[in-house]
Amino acid sequence: MTADKYSAVWVSHSSMADFLRCPRLYYLRNVYKDPLTGHKITRMEPPLALGQVVHDVVESLSTLPAEDRLKISLIKKFDAEWEKVTGKKGGFADHAQEEEYKNRGREMLMRVMENPGPITQKAIKIKEELPYYWLSEDENIILCGKIDWLEYLPETDSVHIIDFKTGKREEKEDSLQLPVYQLLVTNTQSKRLSKASYWYLLTSDAPKEVSLPSLEESQERVMAVAKRMKLARQISHFKCADGGCRYCTPLEEVVKGKGELVGTSSYNQDIYII
Fold it and tell me: pTM here?
């Protein structure tokens, strides 16, 4: 069978995380489309709004020459980007809650400016807007995803994955995020991957390196979940184990018409608040 990316099952770290939390959540965010708009749906909440803006500001720096990245205050860039999520657009209940999150974002970016570390070093930008490759042509599955930052390490002619974290919790050891990114970087660019780190911007002045599994282990773990997702789509089985949990219930409310539409994302998702 000839590989066809339009009939393939596309999987990413975020869609896998949705599926593992709750298959119904995965369906509502990644399969279901509003019959009126033809768009997928998502729910905006303050932590998501904060993470979106901070990531947009920091990730945009990688396209600039290293010596120019901090010439303009990241706080000024942040305040301008914040307009995209202010008020209801960010799911904020009131002005006080919005200011709390906004100040948290400024604190994180001040930390980056005061401790830029890899931000002022050479970086590699993957050319594709959404990097992807065939995880398995036989299974008709494509793996895709965006990597926050790829630092270039000239002494070893290799790259360092850095994932920016804007929440308060550290990533779990069994997370599929770095295995997914490891596979993406290995298969979508030419430099060898030598290390990976999380940078907890709220609490840490520098990235925290974590050990990478072998490529074989990453392939096996990611493929196992991807095949479960493919099967769920084939038999249309997306049941919440709890009959309605904190992950899927808000989007169920949106489907019932109880959400408020506040915008459309760059990926043509209709953005709702509850």
Answer: 0.94
